[in-house]
Amino acid sequence: MSESTLSGRATHIYDFSVAISSIRTRTYPTFRFGAFLFLVIHLGIRLIVPGPSVLPDLVIFNLVALLAAFNAFTAPGFNDHLANLCMGIACGLWAIGSTISTSNSFFTFQIPSNAVDICYSLFYPVLLFALIRTLTARRKIQALEIFDTLIMALGITSISAGLLIKPAMVHFSGSPESVFLSIVYPIGDIAILAITLTLVGLARKSVRSVLALSGILIFTATDLLFLYLSATSGYSFGSLTDDGWLLGIILIVESLYHHGGESDFSERFSAVALVLAILVSSAALLVSSLFPNYVPHFVLIPIFITILLGFLRMQFAIRQAKATNEERELARTDELTGLPNRRRFITELELLRRKEGTLLLLDLDGFKGVNDSYGHGAGDQLLKQIAIRFSRVLPHASLIARLGGDEFGVIVFGPPEAGLEVAQSLRSTLSYPFVLPQATVEVDASIGRVINDEADTTTQDLLRRADIAMYQAKRERLGIQLWRPETNVLAE
């Protein structure tokens, strides 16, 4: 899949998320607080009527999760729209998985348990993506951000579970596949908690970050307690502790209704997590090769997929870095001559201000006549040839830039004599004619020379002094003119 295809699909996802988040109803505050209200009702029924029953455990319990999903979809527009969409999908997946699991506990008609595992397994990567978008300052989807999240979720959770499956089978009963899923869930909880703690730690403290972290803490604590009790046969269906899942989800969704708390950590975080996932994958393959019977074969599938996705991601990252460098270089390069432009020149001038060196400002004599007589096309051709000649005589570590029109700037580091030699060499390159398609022409240059010998000189001072010297050289036909502070300008 090409990077442009990823970018196009990401744009479609973002547009769809905007459409979903634009849904508003006059009653949405009722739905927002309705989730918490039904949670209180469920707790009240559970205290009054102990033991599982259809109304509180199948209807009210799962209605709370569905209301939370709706609240995420219709969260305020100041959020990242994709965060709202993914948070709603994550809550919806959890609600569907919970509904199927609860239904199977009450009715003889059984929905395949694989559907529950699929919903709960998808819940983690979607929630992870939503949390990253919620707790970072992103407002527009990045083409490879979904890719990064997929690698993190697939790699770290499944591979870590694969490495732990052998010792876990000593304490869990069932097939390796069922034990694998039993391990994936707690690893997913720990991964989500660790990522949230990292993002909140780097973000500005706010109600949003506190609510998100509190919700994740409560949800993961409830999930880990459930997994522990299930493994030790101490869990009973319809326990009061099950409401911890709902409270955690409500608090996570509620964080979308508050401003602030974003950090700018997303790109660096994705890069570190990507490297970590590849390293863990490599470690898992090493263990598998050294101990063939330790890692089940089905666990090797997500390991290979993670490594493949990791290398594809690296390829995209290299392309992005190359494109960024090219764009940056183009922004600092004169389009006509290929020389550095004024922006790059000003940056280098800051270095000259702190070092010993010379600033040369050149203005071509006779260039306007070429433009007037033969047109701007001839003038452009002349500038290209002049740029080539100038570049050939420029010493190493010096810089020449086209500042605009027929004006050039040169920075020469070193003693004053070096600057004078460069100025003379530049003028000598113009001593023989230029052959253009339209005609053979001759031009000369007037050069203003400024020696940087004052510690407190600013870039504006250097440019102003060079400009004064250059126009003095042009006005009096001096060729090269040195600026001196005591007499303003003096002829060479």
Describe this structure in words.
The strands form two sheets. The protein has a six-stranded mixed sheet with strand order 2-3-1-6-7-8, with helices on both faces. A two-stranded antiparallel sheet has the order 4-5. The chain contains 16 helices and eight strands. Mean pLDDT is 79; it is low at 1-14 and 16-27. The protein has 492 residues and is an alpha+beta fold. It starts with a helix and ends with a strand. Strand 7 and strand 8 form a beta hairpin.
- Structural class per helix/strand content? alpha+beta
List the helices and strands in order. Answer: HHHHHHHHHHHHEHHEEHEEEHEE
Q: Please give the order of strands in the largest beta sheet.
A: 2-3-1-6-7-8
Over the alpha carbons, how many angstroms does the gyration radius reach? Answer: 34 Å
Query: Average pLDDT across residues?
Result: 79
Helix content: 55-70%
Poorly predicted regions are 1-14, 16-27
Reported for the largest beta sheet, the result is: 6 strands, mixed
Q: What is the helix tally?
A: 16
Q: Which percent band covers the strand fraction?
A: 5-15%
Number of strands: 8
Distance between the termini: 65 Å
Q: Choose one word for the global shape.
A: elongated
